[in-house]
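Continuing the batch. This is chain 6 of the set; chains 1 through 5 are on the previous pages. Same settings as before, nothing changed between runs. Recording input and output for traceability.
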Amino acid sequence: MKIKFTKLQALGNDYIYIDSFKQNLAGLNLRDLARKITDRHFGVGGDGLIIIRKGRKAPFRMEFYNPDGTPAQMCGNGVRCFARYVCEHGLCRKRKIEIETKDRIIEAEVLKKTGEFIIKVDMGEPILERKKIPVNGKGKFCINEEIKVDDRIIKITSVSMGNPHTLILVDRFEEGWQELGSMVEKHPIFPEKTNVEFVKVLNRKKIQLRVWERSAGETMASGTGASAGLVACVLNNKTDREVLAYFPAGCLKVSWDEKNNHIYVIGPTEEVFAGIYEYKSQ
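Output for chain 6:
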């Protein structure tokens, strides 16, 4: 079966988009498709597969699959690229776009189209209650809490941005951080596993991050990770409520509004290429 797709990226976080408005996807095994099309050797390659659908509670709905085929809840950079796609491909002419995700409606706003295509996203409120993230254990929150990983003790702060994140504040990115990220992701304290971010505080207005995504592994950036990283830094009194979050390929501007408790993320997006994928079902 021939499937039309478009690949977009934000700071190297790359996703494959399939537009259900323009082709019939009925009967497709989307989990199998996600595993095959995101493969970087035998497929198109990407950090995930995103289906563009008509929403039930908003004009559009983002259906997101990890590279291992599991459905995912939310993706900050993915939703920004989603907004660019529907804007550029004639599905929406408004500057502000509402996008339905698994547990919330996200509002995206096109700030700039010429040169860099800049999208601002209202990520909503962070979830701090450990049962809702979820994180096993005592106490209402998981802030600067010690857990044992292999033979070492590390301190973590956990936040949900519609998907679970666990932040580890570090002085430097040690060699082999990916192995530690993988172990934290699958730690028994997290019943649904967790995304893991290592956060280095440069000053009260700048942070650096390295990302280990749940069910995806190392990725170059994460919008929800940047959001959760800011929340963790504020909760631990490390930064102000607005920072530049640096990743290997660039930065996002992230702010946590004290009045409405919402997180806002601003950054660039890019359409990389489009094509036709020859899908062979199982």
